Each structure stands twice: as C-alpha cells, then as structure tokens.
Amino acid sequence: MENDELYRDARVSPVSLTYYAFCLGNGNYTVNLHFAEIMFTDDKTYSSLGRRVFDIYIQRKLVLKDFNIAKEAGGVGKAVIKNFTAVVTAKALEIRLYWAGKGTTTIPFGSVYGPLISAISVDPDFVPPPPTVNGGGLSVGAIVAIVVAGAIIIILIFGILWWKHCFGQKSSVPKELKDINSQTTIFTLRQIRAATNNFDRAFKIGQGGFGPVYKGVLSDGTRIAVKQLSDKSVQGNREFINEIGMISALRHPYLVKLYGFCMEEDQLLLVYEYMENNSLAHALFDGNYDRKTELRLDWQTRQRICVGIAKGLAYLHGESRLKIVHRDIKATNVLLDKDLNPKISDFGLAKLDEQNKTHISTRIAGTYGYIAPEYAMHGYLTDKADVYSFGIVALEIVSGKSNTLTNPTDEFFSLLDWIETLLKIHGATSKLAFPGSSSAIDLTPPHTLHLNANQCPCAIVDPIATTHPYPWQCDHSKNFALVQIETLLKIHGAPSKLAFPGSSSAIDLTPPHTLHLNANQCPCAIVDLIATTHPYPWQCGNTMRILLVF
C-alpha cells in the first residue's frame, strides 16, 4: 500500500465523525478523503464477514451514500481516496461521516462498526489573495479612544453585576453539576421559558418521579419535551447527572434523543426530542379509563413496538461502546413518536455494565412489578435484568393490561398472577382477550393454547428459566425471531409441524396457520417470580424458555 504510514492508523466511531475547518477564504475547495479498511480481514475467518457501510456529507449535503471502504478499494488493507468539491460561502467547511444503521455491528467484536477514516486533505481551487498590510497603523488618539471606551464598558458590566448581587449570592447547584462535561447543548432558562410559555400548565404532558414534563417549541420551530427536576430532590440531582452522562454518549433510532440541558436559578432541566404520542403506557392503559385519550394499536403496530424495544436493548447491551443496563424498562419509559415507533427513555437509573465482571452488586433501583427477582432480592444486576423487565412489558403489550395498576375496580392485582390463574383453571374455558380485537388465547384443560397467528401475537413465558440467551445471536438477519416459525407459516397446502427441542410436543401449522400448543408438555408457560435468571424472549434454540410469536 502506498504511504503505508498514512493508513496504519485510523479514526473510527460507532455513529458519526465530524470535522470542521474555519477561517477559510470563500470559494471552491477539493476535499480528499483517505480510507483503508484495517479492522476486518480477508482470510475467510469470522472477522472477514464484517461490512462497514456509512454515508458521507460535505457542507451538510449527502455526497456519497452507502460507502463501503473494502468494496471500493477492492479488499481490506487497501487504500482508496474519494475526491469531492466543496463550496465555502461562510468561511467554514464541515465534513461528516455518518453510520445510518447498515452493515454489521458485532464482527469481529462490538463497537467496530460505523465510519472510519485515515486522513483528510483540503486544497483551494483558487489562488488565495495575499494578506493585506496596514502600514499606517492606528493613531495615538484612536488607541486612547479605544482604551477609554473599553474601560467604560468594563465598569458598566461590573456595576450591573453588583446591582444584581451576583457577587454575594452562592449558587445552590451542586458542584458536580457544574463540572459536567457534556457534548449536548446548554440551553438558557430564558429559552426554555419562552418555549414552554413559562411552564404553562396547559403545556404539561406528564409527571414522573423526576418531576413534571412539558412540551414546547424552540425559536427555530423545533418541538421539544422538557423534564423539570423536582425541587430539593437529592435523588433528582443524581439522576440528572447520570442521564446527561449516559444518554449524551448514545445515538440510536430506538433511544430518545437528548438535545441538551439547562442549569440556571436552581433549575435543572433536560431537553429531549418531542414524542407526539406520549408513552407506551398512555397508549396501552389510559384508554381503559378515558376514551378520549385512547390509541388504537393494531397487532402489526404492537409487533413493531416490541421489535423496536428489543433493538434498543440490543444496542445498549451489546452494540454501543458503553455497555449499559437501563434498570427501569417499563411502559411509561417507552415513548412513541408520531408513527408509533418506540424509543427507550429515562436513563436516570442506568448503570455501566463492566464487561470483565459477571454481575454488578448495587443498590436496588427500578419499579416494582418490573424488577428481576435476583436483582430485587440480592442486588445481583446483569443486563438480563432488563430482559425480565422487557418480558413484562411484552405481556402488557399483548394483553393491554398493566402489571402495576392498583385501581380497586380492576379484576386483577398482578398481570402475572392473573395469567397464572387462567393457566390453572380446570373445568371451564378461560380466555385471555386482547383489546380492540376478537382474537383471544383460549385456555382449556389441559391448558391447550389455540392462537391465530395472522391476527394476534402472544407471549408465553416459562417458570423454570435456566439461561438467558441473547436475541442478536439467534439469526443475523433478524433481531427478533422465531425464524423457523416464520418460515413454516409461509408453507401452504400441507400441514407442517415445528417440534420444540427436548420435547415431544409440536406446533401444528395448518392453513390458515392456527397454532396448537400443549402448555403441559412444551416448556412455555408463565413467568416465575422465584426464577434466578430470565431468558431473552427473542432467542430460539435448546435453551429457549420464552416464545414470542408474531
């Protein structure tokens, strides 16, 4: 390779790389981007299967889409130079390389995907004019006038600050908050007040443990959601710091985006992208009591929401540079955009997962009803605690019932107890009905499940969980899969059966794809609160204990 030293090292990022050049003369420039794929191999081993695909933007315009370094160069370890023309009109140049979610993410190991670049050179396409020299200089009178004017301005500034008692007051904002080094935008309190109409009650869209949440619109038209720290909340201070530190380092389509924060006048505010359809809990449960707020979620939408949450967790647990355990996955912390796509939010309780440790021993935090048993009882925290919480949320999505509601008019105390009761009924038909649909799970002795796979998704969770298989290891083409079932569902004309490993029972797939499942024989039943571990609900294989069918 020519200029071997130039391509020996490279800068890589899981999401984006952005470079700026300032104080340039206006005109046309030739931008030369130097690439060489040095993280994959071509020796027909596992690491040779990696594909790096990203987009290139110059002056915020897409100039090259789906760029694959190895493909363009004709192999790994080979140099390729891409040349572009950039027009500079404001004395500044911006070059951005952005990963749009394509290519591989865990080959040969996590965090090696995303844009990679070895070198950049920028050359003007014109002859720069010679610098101008003022031989005369400033007169003595002009210099004196400038000095006097500057002194007057400084005196005025100090006078205004003294008048406002700025010197004598001590900020109540903790020192650790002032020391936050974040790449997010710092908003002024004036901006936030203008956006929310001075925190008008009509702009309030939610209330959580952190404090109230308001919607607003910035001066540039950007719609935002503002989370306000509760007054005198030490826990809120801690969560504020944690949330900024965690979420500002993460970028993913299924994680809510943090625009910035504000720390003024004892106010601690977090500014997020606005999610038009509020939370998943609002969509699932509020309609049970207020028909005006009800959202109709068809089964395709519920499937998409489950898949989106799973992809977000897969990113947190195995694809981002920071391995993170969220610790508070629940329906209220999953937000829905205008198209009902889910985004995981509220990272105030999140913990870094140290990869060289099997688990983290930590203070118990989270929401009762969603906390994994081994974590609740022993403080034994792994990323699989999030998976248990996801299993509860999946059951809520499927059933339309909350696992934590305590309204005395409800006919159940716990969603898990309710489903377990149905499974134990003998002598009478019981049905787990799905809101907004005529579909149902029919539970008749000896607990045979009849499920129409075209209309109704279902989650069945086993009480004797022993392992936690990972969702992204099941099939590289799908993050959320029972691929065998999906394949067999496409078969028409003759009955097909899918046998479960280690069991004589089977799923009988006959047109129109009705699934018959014997719950006594097949390792699929209900979540057990005494289970010490919880399987990933999207994994298939010999260790499968949870079945999600869509």
From TrEMBL:
Q: Which domain of life is it from?
A: Eukaryota
The residue ranges crossing the membrane are 140-163
The record's section on Pfam families has: Malectin, Pkinase
Catalytic activity annotation: L-threonyl-[protein] + ATP = O-phospho-L-threonyl-[protein] + ADP + H(+); L-seryl-[protein] + ATP = O-phospho-L-seryl-[protein] + ADP + H(+)
Name of this chain's protein: non-specific serine/threonine protein kinase
Membrane topology listed for this record: Single-pass type I membrane protein
Might you give the EC number(s) for this enzyme? 2.7.11.1
At the highest ranks, the source species' classification is: Eukaryota, Viridiplantae, Streptophyta, Embryophyta, Tracheophyta
What span is annotated as the signal peptide, if there is one?
none
The Gene Ontology CC terms held by the record are:
plasma membrane
Name the top EC class. transferase
Q: Where is the Protein kinase domain?
A: 199-550
Its primary localisation, in coarse terms, equals membrane
GO annotation terms (biological process): defense response to oomycetes
Assigned keywords, A-Z? ATP-binding, Cell membrane, Glycoprotein, Kinase, Leucine-rich repeat, Membrane, Nucleotide-binding, Phosphoprotein, Receptor, Repeat, Serine/threonine-protein kinase, Signal, Transferase, Transmembrane, Transmembrane helix
Protein family: In the C-terminal section; belongs to the protein kinase superfamily. Ser/Thr protein kinase family.
Q: Which GO molecular-function terms appear in the entry?
A: ATP binding; protein serine/threonine kinase activity
Does the UniProt entry include the keyword Glycoprotein?
yes
The answer to keyword Phosphoprotein applying to this record is yes
Record localization: Cell membrane
